[in-house]
Amino acid sequence: MGNSYAGQLRTTRFEEVLHNSIEASLRSNTVVPRPVFSQLYLETEQPLAHDGRTENDDEDDEDGSESNSPSIPYQMKPPPEGCCTTDGFCQAGRDLRLSSLASDPLDVPPGFMLVGVKSPSLPENLLVCAVDRRFLPDERGHNALLGFSGNCMGCGEKGFRYFTEFSNHINLKLSTQPKKQKHLKYHLYRNNQGILVKGAPICWRGHDGRMRQMGSNLSEGHVTSDEQPPNMALTHPSHTHGSYSAVSHADPIGLPQIADIPHPLTNGGHAVPSVAQPPLNQSGPGRPSATGPHANAGPPKKRHKGWSPESSANNLPETTVKTPPSSSALSTLSVSSVITNGARSETAAPLSSSQGSLTPISPPGLSVTIPDQLLHTCRLQPVIFKGHGPLPQLTGNVSEVLVSSLLQSCYLSSQTLPRVYQHYGPSPIQPLSTEMQILLTVYYLVQLGPDQVPLIEDLEQIFMRSWRESHLSEIRQYQQPQTPATQARHFGIETPSTLPGLPQHLSLPPQSQQPLTPSQLPWLAQLAASSCGEGVVVLGEHIRSLAQGIHQTFSRLMDGRLENTNYVVIIVTAPGQETQSCVVVTGKHQCRALAESMYSPSEGLKEINHQLSTGVAQELIHFCSSLGQDGDLDSLLDSANVDSNDPPPLSSSQESAEERSLKTTHSPKDSHTQGSKDLPSPKERASSPKDTCSEYSVEWREVRPIQLAVARKLLSHVCAIADSSTQNLDLGSFDRVSFLILVPPSEVTFQQTVLHLWSSGVLGGLDQECVSQREAERYVVKMDQSAQARIDNLIQEAHCNSYTLYILVHDHAHWDINSASCTSSDSSLGLVDQLLNSRQVRDAPNILILHVTSFPFALQTQYTRISPYNEIHWPSAFSNDVDLYHERTRYFGVSELLESTRSGSSLPLMRYDSSFESMASALEERFPKLHSAVIRTTIVIQHYCVALMAASGKIDSSHNLHKHTSVETLEIVQSLLTAAQQCPAHHGHMVLLRIPSLALAAWAHRRLSRVRRQLGLEESFEIILGNPNQALNIGRSFTDQIKTWLKIQDADWVPQTYLELEALPCILILSGAEPLGESLPRSLKYCDLRVISCSYLQRTTLEQELGLAAYLVRAESRPPHNPGPGSDLLESDAEKLSSTDNEEEEGQENGDSPLSSSQQLQSCPDSGALDPFPAQSTTSPNVHKGTMDTIQSPLQSQTQLQPQPLSQSFLYPQPTPHHQTPSYSQAQPISQLQPQTQIQGQNQPLSQTNSQPHTQTLPQHQSLSQMQTPHPQPQPLPPAQSRRQHSKSTSSGSLSPRASSPHMSCSWARGVSRPPSVLLPRALYDIITASDSSGLPRCTSFLPHMSVAWASSFRPLLSKMMTCTEQSLYYRQWTVPCSYHMDSSNRTEGRSDNFHPRRLLLSGPPQVGKTGAYLHFLGILSRMLIRLMEVDIYDEEDINYSAQADGVQYHPANASWPNPDIMKTMPFDYTLHDPKYDDISSVYNPGYKPSAEGNPVRQEDIYLRRRTSRIKLSKYAAYNTYHHCEQCHQYLGFNPRYQMYESTLHAFTFTHLLLGEEIQLYFIIPKSKEHYFSFSQPGGQLESMRLPLTSDWSPDCIKSPIFTPTTGRHEHGLFNLYHAMDGASHLHILVVKEYEMAVYKKYWPNHIMLVLPTVFNGAGIGAAHFLIKELSYHNLELERSRRLEGGGPAGDVWPFIILADDSCVMWNAVDLDAHNGPVEHAVSLKQVLQHMEACPDLAHYGLCGIRKWGSRGLTGNKQREPFSRGHLHDFLLLNVDRSQNVQYDQNRFTCHDVDFTLRLHSAGLLVCRFNSFSVMKKQIAIGGYRTFIIKTKMTDVPTSVGPSQYVCAPDSKHLFLATPAQLLLEKYLQHTSQKLFPLSTKNYTHPVLSVDCYLNLGPEVTVCFVSSRPHSVNISTTGLLFSGLLLCFADSFVTPGFLKKFSFLKGATLCVISADRSSLRQTVGRLELEEEWRFRLSDEFQTANAKEDRPLFFLTGKHI
């Protein structure tokens, strides 16, 4: 039903990894193979076992020291026989003593060290061995891995993995347990003479009493791994990220920490708080799953032979957040991957520790007092980064200093070495030492620019690169076995290049280089710092403690000696102590940035509100209002006001005071008073016809091809879930779809979704009653407090309507991912978790959740609920398959914006405003206490005010206003004011001003509105405050203008979405902490993001803001990337546009160009992401499905909803044939999903279409104009359609090329083909435009979302070539959710994968059209379900009804049952009426006159094309194997709660005279059905099938057994009668051929099977019916005798059986009481059968049946008779008792029912058809008894054999056929009867006489059936002349006398058929045929069968 799991990686890389995985699992001694997907990146680590230890912990801590535990007597293993046991020699007999080997050359493998072993029996000598240095401690006694790996230096044997084994080999002869700490004593080294000598003792610290030392070690912050306390539960697991959560001990500015928490330590001394949390991932023995949690159990204990990377990579780092310096909330994440909930989390230093990061209480007396007035004196608030060692306690004015643990977290995580590097054997890989970390930190700080803020991500990458480069050869060595392709992915190795700003020698230390010692560190650090003057100061020498260093730093700060210093690095390296460090940030800019980043986003907004409401910002506002010598802003405005003669609304002094009071309480009122009288009002302006703009068009309803493709992909994923064996979704049981779309709490987003929904047409198919847009609102819910009731309501509905599939669409899904348990009850955060992750939703089988987002990263963590198979990614523009979608638009996102910054000469679309930045930094220094957002917003608004004054021309130019604003702002304002004046309809464009703080936005709105009013510009442009909590508020005059443009008549209409503001000149001030999915119109020209926060550097946050500028442009148009040197070219200079440079410049400068922002990053990961010309590749607009996986660029910014209103597509004549012609009318019905979707394809610009696809590769900067030169004249569209295009909504397609043609007057039309220009803060611009080593933008390597944390520092970087699927797997492996993330609880539920089976994720870049795609998906899903509930039913009119009906009414129309006496008087209707038989010979009926034209001849396979109707299944339908609703599970035997039904096989034998031998049949009887049979004893011989008595009756029981013969339809046959029987108990037996028994049993395990004997494998339907009937009669007699034995009446046993086709799907009854004539309605099969079985005289009938349904079946008089006598087909009730002497012909393949009915009637039995019931037959094109293939004996391949080859002359050499003889004969007669019976063709009055059987002689021949049996009922043949005689297997009843009764035409044809030649001759002789018929030798034939296949023979002759 859909493609199975789309999204699997089908690349060669996938196969390689699969291969490697299998190979690794064969080599390894673990049972579980490594998961393949996760190998595509670094592998997952090993989960904990139940007791909190890793799987490898099966041994005790043998390396624990000999602490206080009693010693255990140790028995050494006896040495193997014959080996050497001499002390000082190994078992191989080689000398190991140092004295002997001192001068020998020894081969030491890389990574190993020579060590002296102390042997108790040789106290004076040392034994030499080589030990892997990872298992030895470093110089400070740290970092030794548990376990051992060594080689014998005597015999050279390698690979000893256990010290016990090694000590036996070297004959240590110990009396105690061998311990490496005790016996590996000394390092050995060669002296100057090359002699091996004893060196320093190996520093095994603490082995003599480790518990005693715990305390002191902890206080220094490190303990080696060998000293782990023996029995602390969390000892080993402490590396698993899930097994602890950060103790959120707030330690604001270093208050004393709680010291008595024991800190269990893991290897390498990284301790983690042991907070009780259930051990995670208890999924059974170490089954790392790719997406599952990567629990890292510390390094394995000694038994680690099969130790694979998964069992390792330490995840300590996970916890650490590499967050941008800013990431406030994350900061605390130090080791545990959980963030404290405390808001100011930075200050909550995490309790975790690594090499001294523990922060225990510092010894008393080491506190530092913060000087008074520090902030006032220095105008900054210093930030102290904790580094190594405990920070001293701070006292005094602690609020003036901030303490951050970000750096400490970074140190920690980069020292937790992953074990992946040990997979291939021992090696010398060690983490970076503390000294190296400190030195690299200094280098990093030194190379930062004076305005740059340190980014922890960057520092972490420097650590990682330095570490990789120092171990490059080892890492490479371990990678050899992998292919180069996987290598870089695995380890993220870049070729060593020097790190920025680091000296070459440091960047790649040669192997021989000695490690950095603590004593060298201070002077090396000072040397490094000397290169930047005073920028970085290192305090190292003479500093004895951190307290002393911090105290010195404060003193210098107060003395002003650090004026030019940004960072002070304090290093303490006292001999014998741990190296300690910290960094004090003293740069003003850096301190501010870091301080602001320590706020969470919500706290930052609160702080801004606080500053505004308390008035502290007032001084700043006054300061900004002063223009120096040029006067004061307010007074200049007042003068402008006076000049313009408008009465001032308030006196200006009053007003300005009021304006500036910063109370942000009320939302601004727009004062839209009718302003300057000289401008005509918008109404007047727009109404005059000459003032309309021919360029304007807004289109809402078209679905783009790519949206269709995505919708279908969603559908196929849903089908894949349904098709999988998990039975998580039973699509077949749903008959309709309902849905609810959840959107963030933004009124505009809500209305926009409603608008898309209403215009998409989806509701038309789902909800006929929804007749207005207002009613569509009930399908969309804002996720605020009101959502709870709506979702509860939906859950209840879903519970009650199990046949409705409910789709919960969670749009903008990254918005609220907070855990409900971590949020306060009053906030709306956590609602999604509370509602969507609730048990009711999760467990409801008919609720499916679709998350839709542009930023899926937060939902792709190790604990995600969404299976990677259920992710659907928008096809990427960077894939070569784009063309498959025939897209006519091109998406411009982040990547294209970035591209524009690199294209050299052009003015980039994304830029920063340097004059604004310099002013902001000056004021930030001046006002250190104010939040930078307040300062920056004030400056921006001031710039806008001044620019408005300058551009309005109302202020005297002598004031030099332009000096007081920036060029960028002036250009924006001039462009805004002039655009509307150039268009006759006053179309203009939008300027977006993004101000996250609601309070600042409200102030800005009031300020700008006041300035606008005072300048008299109220009618020129609108100023809109976009507050997510409020509806849109637009002035009346502007609303009227929009209504005129959109031709809206409704008087009450007001715009409710930004999309409807298309072409309105306006400034939109968009507020809110983050955009909530609002789409912007295509008239957006400038995106002013200068005041967004630079503090939150997560990928989602950045891409979301940039996504506001995302845009769809016409695929053919190239972005104008080349503006010339000049800067601003106002639109008024239209003439200049003809030159390319200017034109482009204008585009860029004015922001017209279409690039949208988000894509690039979005695509980043994609292949093309940052290619230099990504855009090109997309020119040709289509995208192929493969691309879907291609990544959306990481940045995907904005959200999905946004429809981009289409670009206007202006119409051009379209010459090129291959593009579609512009048809406007084709509004596609439902498909049109949403405005967004619109593609304007239709109105495609022409010229371009022809330009070859290569245009794609043109460099971007080719200007539009160059590309589009050949313009045909624009033709105005027909007004109605042409105007309807809407705005930039996602769908928007873009616009016609004409946008660039030189003479347009409407600047909106020009601008609409170009993406907006984006202005960013300088800090963000620098970050976004920088690339990392993989060529991706730096921001892609940032933490993806605030609510997740990295699992490890040692992760590879994202790769530029990753597809979306790979990117998802990357995040699933390398990120973990924080404690307040809703998925953080998902790991504890005990399932192995924790994926929710009915949850899908659709991701795609912002504004690309996701809303349209998912709405279309809802439409096609609904149609598919309806289609699943419909079947193709044969719907044909009955044939062969003669014109004149006899008009006699035998039974009253409402008679319930037939009266046998009346039935006997009715004539038998020999004529066939079933339309399936319109291609066979008609049966002669004296009363029937055929119509002149006869029946048309049909081909054989025509039945596949017979007329059908699609009919919806009723609740009483029969089903095939694809249906499995809950009610059926037990019936079908698939209920997972029960075991699959067992069946037993029973043989049943009976004798039949006709067959002349015993027949053995087999019954397969499920245990649940055994009560229908009687056995000789329980489990014994099958005796009979139980039959009820005639007198039995039960309302829930059907008495007649139902037999369904079937072949080839194990999947498609309709054998599920559960619903058809309406629950009644019934006996249903499938009659199957032996070779199909197994497959039928597999699909229908709970059905009884009757298996035909082997000889019938090739037989037709006649054989099956023959055996069923004979078996049933035999069984009837058995049952009678059984009853007699039991003393009951024998004759009373029920003698009826039902023979039903396997395609009967529904049954109907006629309702005669309907008002407008008889009407049919669906009834259950139970009702039909019970009615027929209740017929009082049923025993009188031999055969009963029902009508075949036809849609016109009840019209005309022919069916008024409720009962009739005639042919019956398909569904028969057969009396096996009365029909005992009439058998089905077991040889027949075709028309066996016609033959049987004729013989039954002639035997005098009553045949009755109940016309008040009808059966519907489903068209099943697969299998069935009609599908016999005629093939030759030579080959099994069907060859085309014509009917003339079906027979041949006897004894001839003819091609024999492998087909039963009877079938060949039947087919031959059917197709060649015109030759055989030439006189009979089309000659109804002279039929062929057929004796005792009916054979089909083709549609042009009529057959007259007569029976030769005595007393048989035959038609009168008096006076009939027959045109032929057919004798088929004539028996003894046929005599010469019988034949002489009939008269034949002269030349009539005789055909005698026999089983062999001798019986043929006997028949001719016995019947004296030669008297009247002439035969020739050449008239004898046989079927084309070989002798062994028993051919049939026939003889033809002519009547004399």
What would you note in describing this structure?
It is a single chain. By secondary structure, this protein is α/β, with parallel strands linked by helices. It has 55 helices and 54 strands. α23 (705-723) crosses α46 (1410-1428) and α32 (932-952) crosses α33 (967-982). The protein is globular and about 140 Å long.
Mean pLDDT: 76
Rg from alpha-carbon coordinates: 45 Å
Number of helices: 55
Tell me what portion of residues adopts beta-strand conformation: 5-15%
Number of strands: 54
Helix content: 25-40%
Q: What is the end-to-end distance?
A: 64 Å
Task: Note the main attributes of this structure.
single chain, alpha/beta, twelve-stranded mixed beta sheet, eight-stranded mixed beta sheet, 14% strand, disordered N terminus
